[in-house]
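Please, does this match?
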Amino acid sequence: MEWTRGIPTMLSATAETSGEVGEDFPTPLSSVVEIARHLVKSRRASLMLPAGDPDQLQVAVASGLPAAVVAEARVRIGDPVSGLVAKNRQPLLVNEGRGARIRRFTSHQTGSFISVPIPLEGAACGVLNVSDPVADATFDVDDLTALQAYAGQVANTLAFESARQRLEQMQDAVRQSRLQLIQAQEDERRRIARDLHDEAGHTLTAAIFRLDLEAMKLPRDFVEAHATLDRTRASLLDCAATLHNIAFALRPQILEDLGLSAALRSLTAQAMELGIERVDLTIDGREPPLDEATELAVFRMVQEALTNIRKHARASRAWVQLVFDPDQALLAIEDDGVGVASAGAEDEATRRRPSLGLRGLRDRIEALGGAFEMGPRAEGGTRLAARLPLAPHHAERDGRDWGQDSGHPR
């Protein structure tokens, strides 16, 4: 199983000198000016974009210009030269002689330059500038035409990058909303588990204690009364055990007290007590200090998967493998049951019920920046897998590869 590790950036070349890119365009833009330089064979190029003030332009990225010039290069819309180009949305070609009248408006003197508008979203406009042709030549109309055509491509790139940034912001907002919802659910689980333990659990314990006291007061020859008290005590113990299991499912105290490994061992032992013949748990790599959300995501995935296997898969064996790599935790749960596509039509309603829990797991894992997959196991049965990102320092690599199969013994 392969996990997508990211999308390469569209623009990655390095400029000689770069200004600070504006907030709306955080993607590296250095290749824009480098391509412009090579396109018309110029020594210098710059891209000016709207600054914080919508009526002002500043250098977003430059090549071949002194850093001091880049830092100071700001013009208001309508001022020469870039400000006029942005306002009129008309290109400008100036060569030696004719350019003398506008030199006083620039902090960096040049004898030949081209400025072309870059239409942006709404009414905004940027400007792409090139200056000082190589070998002391001058720019011509062909250079202007080529740069104008290229400016259209730059405009499309900037529009794409701006849309991509907005999409990422929306996705981040959705992830944050999911995390807040998950945290609210966990807080409610914690409250209910605490109430079950503190209120109902203590009440049951007190009732059992009182029964024991009454049993001690009864004469031994009251056989039927002792039998009734014994049956009542056994029922109360069963009820207490059920409450304990519910509280553990809602909020595993062992997870907080002893950590993830101990909690997973408890889950697998419980699954075998409740019906799965054998559950193999493997944890590879050093367990790092996980944050609560990641720890709970791993625990909930194993908990939900084992519950579904026990109730729906008709499996005799299950495998749980957790691998810690330097930057991620990899989790796989497999079973030898009927499989996700093998159950008959009569089980359709049964198979739909756990999907709600699995959908919640997917939301939880994706909200943490991870990935979740579910599919058939090669040897028959079902396989669930998840990847959760970790901080780089959290774990140490143990040399294992994460492939389609988890590598455990069959």
Observations:
- The two ends are 19 Å apart (CA to CA).
- The domain at 258-410 is CATH 3.30.565.10 (Heat Shock Protein 90).
- The chain is about 45% helix and 20% strand.
- Residues 1-27, 98-107, 342-354, 393-410 have pLDDT under 50 and may be disordered.
